[in-house]
From TrEMBL:
Signal peptide: none annotated. This is Mitochondrial GTPase 1. GO terms for cellular component: mitochondrial inner membrane. InterPro entries: GTP-bd_ortho_bundle_sf, GTPase_MTG1, P-loop_NTPase. It comes from Cebus imitator. Belongs to the TRAFAC class YlqF/YawG GTPase family. MTG1 subfamily.
């Protein structure tokens, strides 16, 4: 849902942060160390398959993909399935397709597996790709069933190009929240929503107006949800218990609400599509 026209106009004209502070963040520890090993294991299984189906989040169709994945495939037919299309703002879908085609990906399907949208296109597309490619005639391929699916674990890039890319992956649940920090992720989410003028969070939480200060915003959310905690403060006369807003709980709710699509569809890769690469590259 959108804000009322007057409130939306006021929010759109507000001065939002132009960039997100990324310095000093230890991105390397966010990602499991087995990714390179997983990619090698996948490579060893390629001789058993005729077509690769890569499943990715439609909210990060560009920045979240592993650049080494395409090189690993060789000449195998390749289908990219961008799932969770219901959570993504696909206004720029044509640009997304053009960018992916420029990277050598001509076969792309947007899906929503929960509601079975476009999912039925996958098997016919795979069948067509295999039928028009050079196959190995293997004795172990049976006719019942006609198609086998070899599932593999998710494989992220062993090294990410920027902190912002890592934060996008984290928002989509690819990285464990506690490794990045829920309040850091909530701050990046707030920054992103404001930057792209997605102010549905204001109405969802019943806030007076859009906000660019994560501490103030989380405090309002905590108060609205009744999420508080007792904090012991040492004073000159002894310990005093003070009731304070539970900021981590408010941050968790903000993230979960976003992931459930209750803050409207969002395209986290708009900056990449518009030719604005992440501000900092990880060395």
């Amino acid at each position: 849902m959108r804000l009322a026209p007057r409130a939306l106009c006021s929010a759109a004209q507000a001065a939002w942060r132009e960039n997100f502070p990324v310095l000093g963040r230890d991105v390397a520890r966010w990602f499991p160390g087995h990714m390179a090993k997983g990619l090698k294991k996948m490579q060893s299984s390629l001789k058993l398959v005729d077509c690769i189906i890569e499943v990715h989040d439609a909210r990060i169709p560009l920045s979240g993909r592993n650049p080494l994945f395409q090189e690993t495939l060789g000449l195998k037919p390749h289908l990219l399935v961008l799932n969770k299309m219901d959570l993504a703002d696909l206004t720029e879908q044509q640009k997304i397709m053009q960018r992916l085609e420029g990277e050598g990906l001509k076969n792309v399907i947007f899906t929503n597996c929960v509601k079975d949208e476009n999912v039925k296109q996958i098997i016919p597309t795979v069948t067509e790709l295999i039928g028009s490619s050079h196959r190995y005639h293997r004795g172990e391929v049976s006719e019942r069933p006609l198609m086998f699916l070899l599932d593999t674990p998710g494989v992220l890039a062993p090294r990410i190009e920027s902190v912002e890319t890592g934060l996008k992956l984290a928002l989509c649940g690819t990285v464990l929240d506690h490794l990045v920090g829920e309040e850091t992720m909530a701050d990046y989410l707030l920054y992103t929503l404001n930057k792209y003028q997605r102010f549905e969070y204001v109405q969802h939480y019943g806030l007076g107006s859009a906000c660019d200060n994560i501490e103030r915003m989380l405090k309002s959310v905590a108060v609205k949800l009744g999420k508080t905690q007792k904090v012991k403060i040492l004073t000159g006369t002894g310990d005093v218990n003070v009731i304070q807003p539970d900021y981590p709980a408010a941050a968790r709710d903000f993230l979960h609400t976003f992931r459930r699509g209750l803050l409207g569809p969002v395209m986290l890769d708009l900056d990449v599509l518009r030719g604005h690469p992440p501000a900092e590259t990880v060395s």
